[in-house]
Amino acid sequence: MTGTAGGAAAPQPSGTTAQPSGASGPTVADVLVLGGGPAGRALAAACAEAGLRTVLADPAPERAWTATYCAWPEELPPHLPATTVAARPAAVAVLPGGGRRALGPYAVLDTAGLRAHLDARLAGVTVLPGRAAADDVRPDGHRYRVRLHVPGDRGGDGGSSGTDADGTSGDGSGSSSSSSGSGGGGSDTAPGDDATQVVDAALVVDATGAPSRLRPGPAGGTEQTAWGVVVDERAAAPVVRPGEAVFMDWRSPGPHRPGWTDWPTFLYAVPYGDGTVLLEETSLARRPGLPLPELRDRLAARLAGAGVTVPDGAPVERVRFPVDTPRGPRHPVGFGAATPLVHPATGFSVAPALGLAPRLAAELARHLPHDPAAATTAARRLLWPRSARAVHRLRRHGLRTVLEMPPHLVPDFFDAFFAGRSGRAFLTGRDDLTGTLAGMAGVFRAAPPAVRTRMLRSAAAFHPNGR
Question: pTM for the complete prediction?
Answer without folding.
Answer: 0.84
